[in-house]
Structures are given as structure tokens and as C-alpha cells.
Amino acid sequence: MLKRKKPLIFVTNDDGIQAKGLSELIKGIRSWGEIVVIAPDRMRSGMSSAITSSLPIRLHLKKKEEDLTLYSCTGTPVDCVKLGVNEILERKPDLVISGINHGSNSAICVIYSGTVGAALEACILGIPSLAISLTSYSSDDFTQAVKYGKWVAEKILENGLPQGRTLNLNVPPIQKVKGLKICTQTKGYWAKEFQKAEDPAGKPVYWLTGAFVNDEPDNEQSDEWALSQGYAALVPLQIDMTAYPLVHTLKAWEC
Amino acid sequence: MLKRKKPLIFVTNDDGIQAKGLSELIKGIRSWGEIVVIAPDRMRSGMSSAITSSLPIRLHLKKKEEDLTLYSCTGTPVDCVKLGVNEILERKPDLVISGINHGSNSAICVIYSGTVGAALEACILGIPSLAISLTSYSSDDFTQAVKYGKWVAEKILENGLPQGRTLNLNVPPIQKVKGLKICTQTKGYWAKEFQKAEDPAGKPVYWLTGAFVNDEPDNEQSDEWALSQGYAALVPLQIDMTAYPLVHTLKAWEC
Q: Of B53, B118, B204, which is closest to residue A15 (Cα–Cα)?
């Protein structure tokens, strides 16, 4: 009987190659198969699905051990996935994991997140993928995020994912997470988004900041609700953004 | 009888404040009401919904005439919308238009596009919005894109848009566009994405390039199909990326 081939797992993030969340994730899945990491050479938070089209992108090999190869990349998280799949990996990976991000990527943050952007990119390229985030900047204990991340990653390796779908996992920064809930993307937005300041020359500058406004605090299906109750929240996402019911309604606008 | 208040229209793009597509759009809607423009100070294509969180953002007033104010901004297209709505405009605009982009934002490009990112951002902030693109880098005749953009913009001003929905308009670079079709986001992806080269020191660099692969060339509902037939293609998009059918299926993964 042929030995089953070891899974090939591609890892990236948006906090950069030096981030603790990345190294904790790698430690957690190190024994699963062949791990190839391409991560940004610096923090690229809030990069969404941005791509680098007007500058050349560089890769630097940082480490090569048995079953573990690490590169840093001057590009965005999405560039990292594209480069890995198009140029570095010899075959399509069995799974792409993006994270573990330091900070929440729940609710509307899926739109802004480079961590989620990388998972969406893998999905576009036909590869099962998962974004993992620890919903706190202050805690740097990734134990529970690694535990739940591994749970979901194993489920994906066993069962696959339907085409055009990826998964977004957020884990609260508490010692004992209660369990995993499958959720929807919480409706809401960021308010009071800027802090106005002056540079040393007295010229005005704006710093992005703000507070999340939850438009459906009582929706027990939403990821914000699950997180607030001490659960890890897993939201299935799709890359087709078409608002199908409107396609019909808007027919009256054709000309 | 009270005079109806002039509409307030906010305009941005991702090609930058100097782009012809932006000035042609402004010319086309100049008489409609009060126009406020905040656009990136340089080309920011492929920026998706990226935000600037680690650097201060600057605004520069470029022009102030009756009913027309223009600022350039050091941030991304999404930053431009956030700054406009949070800091510059005295009230919520009646409409946000992003464009006219020079190059296609059909199919999966909605995920990477800064033009679409800005329209999505307005939608997140509860403002009716529209992204407009001319599907060619070589043609710079924006006449038809302005014509169809105005058609759709007027429909939005008359009828509004449902919450959480925005519109993505692509117009082909032909002299006589046949009409407007309401479409779905074409399924597909970009292949052969990099050109490997060497810098002057002989070190390898990667340039993003590639070709779009259409996974559903016969789908007459898709935006790529409409464009290929000489129609302008309007796709309604939604900011909720939840893959709802999967929420049910994945319940078995809860723990």
C-alpha cells in the first residue's frame, strides 16, 4: 500500500514574518506535513486584498529545514499567496492558513483585513483556506487560537471546502474558550474614525482610529455575539459579492 | 414651496487626483449639485479596501469654486471616503461615485480594485454609491463611460439603494455601447501571474502580471459576457460576505 502523501500547507499572515502569532501557528502544525511560509517582511495590517502592481516584488529565503521553509516578501499578504502558488510551490497546497493575526477580524473587518484577504486569495486560486485571528492586541497568549485553529484546519483537511468559499476564525483572548460556533458576519461599521493632530511643523494630520458600532447586538448567529459569550467564531465567506436579489430588481434600469 | 436642496455628491477614485477619468466624470456631473472630491495624491490601483493605520494621513486643498471642492489625500481610496464622511463633509452625501477608473474592474477584480473598495466603503457607511470603470488601459475616451455612469447615478439619486448594497459599472471602450445590462460577477481568476526579472544587481524580482481565466464564458448573466457583447455591465454587490448555505452545513464542526 502506498504511503499517503504528507499534506503541503502554505502559511502567510499580515503582521509580518516576525510575528508571534505566525511562529505559534507554525509550532502547532509543524508535525502535520510540509510547511511553506511566505509572509510580508513587515507589518501589513489593513491591506485587505491589495496587490502590488507598480513595483517589483522580492522574496528572501529565511530558513530551510526538513519540511519547513520560510520566506519573507516585500509584497502584500495577497502577493505572498500569489507568489507561493505561482512561483514557489511545486504543487497546489492542500491548505492555506493565514494568521494567527494579532487583533480581531470579525464583523465588517473582513473587508479591511489582510489576513482575510490572503485566505480569500487562496480561495480564488481554488485552494481550501482559513484565516485565524486572536481578537485582542493586548493579549499575546495564542494557546486557544492555536487550539481552535488546528481544530478547524483538520476539519478542512478531512472534508475540503466547497469552491469559492473560505473560512474566517476569530478566537477571544480568554484562558478557556467555551467552544466553536458557526456564525454570520456581524452587520456594523466603524464610527469616529479619525484623530486629528498636528505634525511638528503645525500642519494637520489624521490618524485612523474609531470604534466599532454593532448594528445587530442581539443576533445570536453573529460572530460578535459568539465572541462576546466566550466562544470562538467561524464565519464561512464567499468570493462572489453579487447581491443576487438585486440583479432581478434592477432589470428596470436596463437601457 | 421650498426649493429642493441640491444633492451633495462625493467623488473619489484610485487612479489619483490627476486622472482623466476623474476630471471627465466631474465635468459630466458638474451641474447636478455640490461636488466634493477627495482623491489619492498618486496612483493607488489594486488597493482593494486597504486602510492606512500606521501612518498619519494628509489632505491638501487643491481647488475651491462654487459647488466644487477638490482635495488630494495621501491615503488609500477607502481612506479618502472615510475622511470625507467623517471630517470634511457637513452632512452625509446623497451619492458617492468612485472613478472613472482607467481599466476593467469586472469579474473577480472587484476583490482587488481600489475603485470598488471606495464604493464598498461608502456602502458600509450607509451612503448610496457607484464604482465606474472603463474596461481598457489603451483607450482614454471616457464619453460612453460618462454617459452610462450618469444614467446609473441618476437612477440611484431617484430611487436610492438598499442598505448594504453598492453598484459596480464597467463600460467597454467602444464608440457606441449597445445598452446597459444588469449582471452577476463573473466567476474566474488570474493565471500566470508573474514575470520574473533581474534587478541591475542581478537579483531576482517578480512583476505582477497575468491573464484572466473566465470559468463561465457562456453565462449570459455574467458581466464579462455583457462586456464582450458591447454592453455596459452593472453588477450589484453586497458587503456581507457570509456564505449563508455553509453556515448550516458547517454546524457539524461545532465543538
A: B53
